Amino acid sequence: MKELLDDGLNDGPPIWAIFGDLMTGLVGVFVLILIWTLGFQLELAKDLELAEAEREQAQARRQVLEEALAGPLASGRITINDGRIGISGSVLFALNSDRLQDEGRELLATLADPLNVFLKENDQLLMISGFTDDLPIQAGNLSFKDNWELSAQRALTVTRELVAAGLPADRVFAAAFGDQQPVAPNRDESGRALNRRVEMAPVPRSTSTEAPLPDA
Question: Which parts of the sequence belong to the OmpA-like domain (predicted)?
Fold first, then answer.
């Protein structure tokens, strides 16, 4: 009888064997988690290094641009903020006008060559953006319907002047923002004067190709 009972109790696998299999499985899971964690950390470190390299390159490009435009910067005729070149609207244009003043034309002529060199070396385009204050177009001025149109025409005027001064036409394009992106409150004349401006910003050249138009 005792032998029969012993045989019945020993039919299943030993406890230590089950425990060993469980531990082996746990170790395997731990190893997989460890490998994934190490891989994630390596990928994160690589991304951080790439981001830092891009930041340093952008900073170096801005420094080169500032050095190329040292003269206009020193005279206060332009500003550079985060790579954007700002020119006061009063330097370029009279109030509610899109015709360049002599001072503005001379300034753009000095900017064309260093901008051309910078854009070619970095394979970038130049976006010319026009901005206005929030005051409506003065009554009696029939040249422009609103600030959108005024800012667009000013951006186009600067674009054409830079092209005439030697900047390749395929390196520059115009954009209009009206009064939608002020850099100062429009509460007084000093703030409005800051908002009446033209900005030039180098931007990456698009690498995408346009899809062909379908046949008619």
Answer: 80-206
Whether residues 84 and 188 fall in one domain: yes
Strands 124-131 vs 197-204: parallel, antiparallel or unpaired:
antiparallel
User: Which pLDDT belongs to residue 14?
Assistant: 64
Those residues with Cβ within 8 angstroms of residue 91's Cβ, 6 or more apart along the chain or in another chain: 77, 101, 103, 104, 107
pLDDT of residue 92: 93
In terms of domains, do 55 and 119 share one? Answer: no
β-bridge mates for residue 173, sequence order = 127
Confidence class for position 34, pLDDT limits 50, 70, 90: confident
Determine what percent of the chain is predicted with pLDDT higher than 70.
82
Burial of 191 (0-12, 13-18, 19+ CB in 10 A): middle
The strand pair at 197-204 and 172-178 is best described as: unpaired
Please state, as a whole number, how many other Cβ atoms lie within 10 Å of the Cβ of residue 202: 20
Count of domains in the chain? 2
CB contact set of 5 (below 8 Å; sequence gap of 6+): none
Residue 165 has pLDDT above 50, yes or no: yes
- Per-residue pLDDT reduced to its tens digit, 125-136: 999 999 999 988
Q: Check residue 208 and give its pLDDT.
A: 44
Give the CA distances from residue 90 to residues 20, 86, 177, in Å, rounded to whole numbers and listed in that order. Answer: 83, 12, 17
Asked if residue 2 belongs to a domain, the reply is no
Enclosing domain of residue 152: 75-204
Whether residues 86 and 60 share a domain: the answer is no
Q: What is the pTM of this model?
A: 0.68
